[in-house]
From TrEMBL, chain A:
Residues 3-177 form the Hydantoinase/oxoprolinase N-terminal domain. Residues 198-489 form the Hydantoinase A/oxoprolinase domain. It comes from Pseudonocardia xishanensis. This is Hydantoinase/oxoprolinase family protein.
TrEMBL record, chain B:
It comes from Pseudonocardia xishanensis. This is Hydantoinase B/oxoprolinase family protein. Pfam families: Hydantoinase_B. PANTHER family: 5-OXOPROLINASE RELATED, HYPOTHETICAL 5-OXOPROLINASE (EUROFUNG)-RELATED. Residues 12-528 form the Hydantoinase B/oxoprolinase domain. It comes from the Bacteria.
Length: 681, 581
């Protein structure tokens, strides 16, 4: 049996695959934040897989991101190069909110008093300018022990070029502080230049390290007690899996595992359906996320902010290139002092939640707009586990939006959704048109509780003609985790102009990264190493990642790579400079240990007559309608392969609902996915 | 692709169009930043992109450089006046760097494309970016515009879709690094073409009438929000005066006097009494003087309202006769145009400190603290660059301490350059980049700390600096103390130099010589005796404040480990609050 357990803020999602029967089943239980290991075990109890029959358990955990967001990590210290203690606090000095006099930049995870300097210095090419002062290093280690540090990060300047000093410092720390102190170096997490970003990454890894490694040890132990004999793997932000031992040291790699599961799920359904261009579109309670998948792959971004760009902490590890905006089901609709209407980024959150949840919320949200427009059944929401207060939703929108603007309530509600949809369409444009891609060439894949409610309208806004609502969109990340490959990504900064490049050295570096990759993910037949390089024109700062097709062993190979770079630059930014010299910034290798694709059987049911899955007709306003009229409501659980629903209509499932405006046609495929043809003007 | 009219009420359409315009200018901004060829653009973000209506008024602006809030619109307007709307055709790209139009220096290249709809010009997309070199004297003192480089009058660098190679040839022969200049030129054109394309698509989708009336309502909306904020300020006339160090030619300080009048929901900033234009290169044009007033106004009224557009400033009137240091006329030297407007903004804040105590912070380090290096590196390649933008302290406010190490007011999202990137690009070794302890002004809320950045050159290098506010320290408010001001030290052939000013003419440094820039802190807010004892003790433990300053200025007897002698502290704080300073 293969099992994936994805812990989220509110729910723990479980996906179980039985390779013998080919069946996949999904389960959802409430998460207990106080006991995350307990939540995993409880999740396993809720499904029919006996712990001792599990061959592979994939786990996506919020333990790292929660510790960062809630500032609930270890007593952490840093050791830096002499003269650079304050790199972490100084940061990049920018004020993105340029006119906000009260703006606050990032808040470090480590106070200045626990940042110590040690004499040592490298130059940018990795040569030693000043050797590591061992006596000072030992003295610093002792001081940190006396200060009660539970975790220590080591960040030396230019260590991306040579990690020897950092590694020696780590040895001394382990020696002086003992095994109970978590020690991490910047070079084991990131071999890219930019000292503040690397410092922030290292500090974050140290800060969450003791908590994450303790959690994993506890999880493994309690699983073993229950007879678990399979393999435990963790989901990383790059969409791949890694083992417990590595995860216990490089904890920060799992920081965005949930969304990565969703992208991985998109890759999987795209493969199953033979779609080579899809866009992941996930809308939950507070945010919407989107990411492009082409030919079975999503791009990686090398930086991620814990929090927002303006005041967040940068983490420089490979993260799937996901754009996130503050529009979700809980986003508040509000009027400013001059009666301008806005939606989000403020959110009603889980507490008090949307007005219709009856949890004391009185302010209108996106979900309240759906309730007013008849999109959600007041009695069947979450399989009837939560009754929705329609009057409260009406009241919230009337009092706060419709009355002050002189609109009727459905028009105001439709306006709230239109604004949310326009914002999400702009987010999709940010990952497509801004990168030289045309969204109309893609299929939009909906996930998350609110995704199916908005996906068709967002598609219309973008001119996208095809939408896919996968089977069980609310547990889509768990499905993605179930199908993920083992994966590690390696980056090595190596500045050299193409004119000056030593081909043997470059090829040697690539081989070294590949060797590490094969050692980390296993050297089996399924292992593949994919090369790429970050390039720029001489003078530029920002680089573009370009695939490296074959060995870089001849001037012709280098010239071909340069030509590819020119093309990619032109596609992405609209211009190129083929006559200008090019510079290499970093080499990249992705080592992927491919797992055999899951063999998933079709749904058993055949297409039933319409009346078998249409359960009622109720008034609703869909698309740009502002008047409610009776539409068909289908129960997705009753739809078999071939079943079709034509808009205007609603397709309900636990916790969500697919809104089909007029002109949209949804058809259920053999695997239970709904394919929606959208009328594009 | 045209779709039928969208049946939303205006308020909803307005918000959708507002979001789309912000997204377009954001995309233009990212496109330019990610493909630029010099760090003044991609790190310092000394560039600005925007969309403008057919009058040249700002529809949405992607900053970049807050100080260019007005310069782009004024340049687009000047271009419209030059050619007339009838003289502009779909395939044109309009160029200039006229310093007296942009209000700034010749490095600022402004490119503009028209947006056509239904056969006529309905809007413009434009970008300004700072080229690393535009010719002129290298690192030296200038006293007129002619020594500052190539002046490019209004011209069509692309005419009816055909690039004018003769114009490009003039540029190529007059700049030191044409390959960088043309890289930035391509990045600028790609950015404005993106804006042109996206705005056209928006017009196709919603129709010109819908978009135009939404834009008009957006102006009115921004205006209403700003007027509501001004109406909260007590009516009256408020003035303040500050001194700049000197103009680099004579030793005389430059007075910056402003008078602000608030009448109901409008504000008048009068800069008539500011210094006349000066002999040195610290002049800027009228667009800069008005921009400084607008930056201050935006900060105080609607700091988070986006997009920044024409309407946001309708409640502001700026009185600025020509010939002042921020409304200079040809042939005034403009190279260091950005320096004085920072203090103009701060002086407007200072004038309004008592009228707007919730908004106004104490003064900050108020300068970019820029030094330049050039030379031939050991590989035989010419280099020319900033040493860095180190950042400095931010002033404390009524409710919070000032931030340490941030960029000055007119330079928003400007980043420093990572030491690791700088050492890979330039023949330098940075010795330290650290906070400057005790540099923040004392107060109930403490001002932020400045930094110290010490850099050694690894080969013979030409060094110059134009650092201001080394004499007039960042002031405190409401009993808060001043911070340490900016300062520069260096060595020549191993001999330490302690200059009396921050303005250093081109000086040759030998390998191993150093440049040490120490930026000022931010002023304090409220009397230091009113700062919580625990906060002072924590500052001592973290090293932001020394035990001596804690004792002498804050009246807190605390040791380095943070242990407070409460009895002695009580006695210290019972002293006359006015004698400790």
């Amino acid at each position: 049996m293969y099992v994936a357990v994805d812990i989220g803020g509110t729910f723990t999602d479980i996906a179980v695959h039985d390779p013998d029967s080919g069946r996949v089943s999904f389960h959802k239980v409430l998460s207990h934040r106080a006991d995350l290991v307990g939540a995993v075990l409880q999740g396993l109890d809720s499904c029919d897989a006996a712990t001792d029959s599990i061959d592979l358990l994939v786990h996506g955990s919020t333990v790292a991101i929660n510790a960062l967001l809630e500032r609930d990590g270890a007593t952490t210290a840093l050791v830096t190069t002499a003269g650079f203690r304050d790199v972490y606090e100084v940061g990049r000095i920018n004020r993105p909110e340029s006119f906000n006099l009260a703006f606050r930049k990032h808040r470090p995870l480590v106070p200045r008093s626990r940042i110590l300097e040690v004499t040592e210095r490298l130059r940018h090419d990795g040569t030693v300018h000043t050797p590591l002062d061992e006596a000072e290093a030992r003295e610093a280690a002792r001081r940190l022990r006396d200060l009660g540090a539970e975790a220590v990060g080591v960040v030396f300047l230019h260590s991306y070029a040579d990690p020897t000093h950092e590694q020696r410092m780590a040895e001394i720390l382990r020696d002086e502080c003992g095994p109970e102190v978590f020690v991490t170096t910047s070079s084991e997490l990131s071999r890219e230049y930019r000292e503040f970003e690397r410092t922030s990454t290292t500090a974050a890894n140290a800060y969450v390290g003791p908590r994450v490694s303790g959690y994993l040890t506890d999880l493994q132990r309690r699983l073993d007690q229950r007879g678990f004999r399979g393999e435990l793997m963790l989901m990383q932000s790059n969409g791949g899996l890694y083992d417990v031992e590595t995860a216990s040291r490089q904890c920060i790699q799992m920081v965005e595992s949930g969304p990565a599961g969703g992208v991985r799920g998109t890759i999987e359904v795209s493969r199953q359906l033979g779609l080579d261009r899809t866009i992941y579109f996930d809308m939950g309670g507070t945010t919407a996320k989107t990411c492009v998948v082409r030919d079975g792959q999503a791009d990686l971004s090398s930086q991620y902010f814990v929090g927002t760009y303006a005041e967040g902490l940068p983490v420089r590890v490979p993260v799937l290139d996901i754009t996130e905006i503050g529009t979700g089901g809980g986003s508040l609709a509000w009027l400013d002092e001059a009666n301008g209407l806005h939606v989000g980024p403020r959110s009603a959150g889980a507490d008090p939640g949307p007005a219709c949840y009856g949890g004391g919320g009185t302010l209108p949200t996106v979900t309240d707009a759906h309730v007013v427009l008849g999109h959600l059944s007041p009695t069947r929401f979450l399989d009837g586990r939560m009754a929705l207060d329609v009057d409260a939703a009406h009241r919230a929108i009337r009092e706060h939006i419709a009355a002050p603007l002189g609109l009727d309530v459905p028009t105001a509600a439709q306006g709230i959704l239109a604004i949310a949809n326009a914002a999400m369409a702009n987010a999709v444009r940010a990952v497509t048109t801004e990168r030289g891609l045309d969204p109309r060439d893609f299929t939009l894949v909906a996930a998350g509780g609110a995704g199916p409610m908005h996906v068709v309208d967002v598609a219309v806004e973008l001119g996208i003609g095809r939408v896919l609502v996968p089977h069980a969109p609310g547990t889509f990340s768990a499905l993605g985790m179930l199908t993920a490959d083992l994966r590690r990504d390696y980056v090595r900064t190596h500045f050299v102009r193409f004119d000056d490049a030593d081909l043997e050295a470059l090829e040697g570096l690539f081989r070294e990264l590949e060797k590490t990759g094969r050692a980390d993910v296993g050297d089996g037949a399924g292992t593949a190493c994919i090369r790429s390089a970050d390039l720029r024109y001489v003078g530029q700062e920002h680089s573009v990642t370009v695939p490296v097709a074959g060995p870089l062993d001849s001037p012709q190979a280098l010239a071909a790579l340069k030509a590819t770079f020119d093309e990619v630059h032109a596609q992405r930014f609209g211009h190129q400079a083929p006559d200008e010299p090019v510079e290499l910034v970093s080499l990249r290798v992705s080592a992927i240990g491919h797992r055999a694709p899951l063999r998933i059987t079709s749904l058993a049911k055949g297409p039933g007559p319409l009346d078998q899955f249409v359960i009622e007709r109720r008034p609703a306003a869909l698309g740009t309608d502002t008047e409610l009229r009776d539409v068909e409501v289908a129960d997705r659980a009753l739809m078999g392969p071939g079943a079709a629903v034509k808009g205007p209509a609603l397709v309900e499932e636990a916790g969500s609902c697919l809104c089909l405006p007029e002109g949209a046609l949804a058809i259920c495929d053999d695997a239970g996915n709904l394919l929606v043809e959208v009328e594009v003007l | 692709m045209t779709t039928p009219a969208i049946p939303h009420s205006a308020v909803i359409t307005d918000e959708i169009i507002r979001g789309s315009l912000v997204a377009i200018t954001d995309e233009m901004k990212t496109n330019l930043m990610r493909t630029a060829y010099n760090p003044i653009i991609y790190e310092a973000l000394d560039y600005t992109v925007g969309l403008f209506d057919a009058n040249g008024d700002t529809v949405s602006i992607g900053l970049g450089l807050p100080m260019f809030i007005k310069g782009l619109s004024e340049t687009v307007k000047a271009k419209i006046a030059h050619w007339g709307l009838d003289g502009i055709r779909p395939g044109d790209v309009l160029l200039t760097n006229d310093a007296y139009v942009t209000g700034s220096h010749l490095n600022h290249i402004v490119l503009t494309v028209p947006v056509f709809h239904g056969g006529r010009v309905v809007a413009f997309a434009s970008s300004m970016a700072h080229w690393i070199d535009i010719g002129g004297v290298l690192g030296g003192r200038t006293t007129d515009i002619y020594s500052e480089g190539l002046q490019i009058p209004f011209c069509k660098v692309v005419k009816d879709g055909v690039e004018d190679q003769e114009i490009l040839g003039f540029i190529e022969m007059n700049v030191r690094r044409p390959e960088l200049a043309f890289g930035d030129y391509r990045a600028q054109i790609a950015a404005i073409r993106t804006g042109q394309r996206r705005l056209s698509a928006l017009l196709d989708r919603y129709g010109l009438d819908t978009v135009a009336s939404s834009i008009e309502r957006m102006y009115a909306h921004s205006e209403a929000l700003a007027r509501a904020a001004v109406a909260q300020v007590p009516d009256g006339t408020y003035s303040a005066e500050t001194l700049m160090d000197d103009d680099g030619i004579t030793d005389a300080p430059i007075p910056i006097k402003v008078t602000v009048t608030v009448e109901g929901d409008r504000m008048i900033v009068d800069l008539s009494e500011i210094s006349p234009q000066v002999a040195g290169y610290f002049n800027s044009g009228a667009a800069a003087g008005r921009s400084a007033s607008q930056v201050a106004f935006k900060c105080l009224t609607t700091p988070l309202q986006m997009p920044i557009n024409e309407g946001a400033f309708r409640a502001l009137e700026v009185v600025l006769p020509p010939g002042r240091v921020v409304s200079a006329e040809r042939p005034a030297a403009m190279q260091w145009w950005m320096t004085i407007p920072v203090t103009v903004v701060e002086t407007i804040f200072k004038a309004l400190a008592t009228a707007m105590p919730e908004q106004v912070h104490a003064a900050h380090h108020a300068d970019l603290n820029i030094a330049h290096l050039s030379g031939i590196d050991p590989q035989g390649r010419f280099f020319q660059d900033l040493v860095n933008i180190p950042g400095g302290g931010w002033g404390a406010g009524r409710h919070a301490d000032g931030m340490a190490a941030t960029v000055c007011i007119n330079d928003g999202d400007t980043h420093n350059t990572p030491v690791e990137a700088n050492e890979a690009r330039l023949p330098i070794l940075v010795e330290t980049y650290r906070l400057r302890n005790d540099s923040g002004g004392a107060g109930r809320h403490r001002g932020g700390l400045g930094v110290e950045m010490t850099t050694r050159v690894l080969c013979t290098s030409r060094f110059s600096a134009g650092i201001e506010r080394t004499r007039s320290a960042p002031w405190g408010l409401d009993g808060g103390r001043a911070a340490l001001p900016n300062e520069v030290r260096y060595s020549v052939d191993g001999e330490d130099v302690v200059p009396s000013t921050g303005k250093i003419d081109a000086t040759m440094l030998a390998p191993g010589d150093y440049i040490s820039i120490r930026s000022g802190g931010g002023g304090g807010y409220g009397h230091p005796f009113d700062r919580l004892v625990e906060a002072v003790a924590r500052d001592v433990v973290e090293g932001y404040v020394s035990t001596a300053v804690a004792f002498d200025v804050y009246g807190v007897a605390v040791d380095a480990r943070g242990v407070v002698d409460h009895e002695q502290t009580r006695r210290l704080r019972a002293q006359n609050r006015e004698v400790t300073a």
